[in-house]
Write a structure and sequence with these properties.
With about 150 residues, the protein is of the alpha+beta class. Helices cover about 30% and strands about 25% of the residues. The longest helix has 24 residues.
């Protein structure tokens, strides 16, 4: 069992979404392409996330990573928003509530859950709106907690 908060109400009241500097892209390297190993190694130093899939090796790297070959498939520019609450890996509902709020505003997000925090990758042009929406979600949860304590 991981450390971290399990209670959804406390998690929402302490979201503290933080927009990180820089832009990122998701890239994929075919599994069987040995000639790309040097590019993978060069990008690995700056990668903020990796995942092995059947189709290839996915990395999340700074958009300005100069070691990326031009022909590597990549996403559009993404901004990273870190939810600074320390959520447990066993917490239920946080990803749902966050993605539900963003979806209601037509904001897509890719969630990466790490040991301490959840990180959202959001299209660069919608990142500020996403942070605003998540701060509103946090404020609503804080107000609900205060009402529960007062009542």
């Amino acid at each position: 069992m991981s450390n971290g908060e399990l209670d959804l109400h406390r998690l929402l009241a302490t979201l503290h979404p933080k927009l990180r500097d820089g832009e990122f892209v998701f890239v994929t390297f075919p599994r069987a392409d040995d000639k790309l190993q040097s590019a993978i190694g060069a990008c690995m130093r700056d990668a903020v996330g990796t995942f092995m899939e059947e189709e290839g090796f996915t990395m999340i790297v700074p958009a300005d990573c100069g070691a990326l070959p031009a022909d590597i498939p990549r996403s559009g520019p993404q901004r990273m928003v870190t939810l600074e609450c320390h959520s447990s890996l066993e917490a239920v509902g946080l990803t749902y509530r966050v993605s539900e709020r963003l979806a209601s505003l037509s904001i897509s997000c890719n969630v990466v859950a790490a040991y301490y925090h959840d990180h959202l990758f959001i299209s660069a042009d919608k990142a500020a709106a996403a942070v605003h929406a998540l701060r509103a979600l946090q404020a609503e949860a804080e107000a609900e907690a205060q009402r529960a304590c007062a009542g």
